[in-house]
Specification:
mainly alpha; about 10% strand; single chain; three-stranded parallel sheet
């Protein structure tokens, strides 16, 4: 059930998502929101829109091969708690870009001019 999933995610450390060319990745966003240090496939939406790997801005990790996933897992396990918490905080902050409120605001901004021009 959903409650059990939330409990597992809140108690976990690492979230792994291996789907190639995921068009968006709501599961990735949910893992990040739950505080999991997330490793996703270096393609599609995770690469273009979700995961940031730049130094000082990292909110997750990207990988392609099993070796890269394993290296990221080893790196995360070796991080200090302060380092992990920094990634978690940036991940949780970044998922606000995908909230329902942000969607509604952006949708209205994009469609209002079209709808208003049709009614004129």
């Amino acid at each position: 059930d959903y409650g059990s999933l939330l409990t597992e995610m809140s108690e976990g450390l690492i979230g792994v998502h291996t789907m190639w060319n995921e068009h968006f990745g709501i599961g990735i966003v949910e893992m990040m929101a739950a505080g999991l240090l997330t490793i996703a496939h270096r393609s599609g939406g995770p690469l273009r829109d979700i995961i940031i790997e730049e130094s000082g801005a990292r909110n997750g990790f990207l990988a392609v091969s099993a070796q890269e996933y394993a290296a990221h897992i080893a790196f995360i396990l070796g991080m200090t708690e302060q380092g992990r918490e920094g990634v978690r905080e940036r991940a949780r902050s970044s998922v606000n870009l995908f909230s329902s409120q942000k969607f509604d605001t952006s949708w209205t901004r994009a469609t209002d001019p079209i709808l208003k021009s049709k009614s004129s």
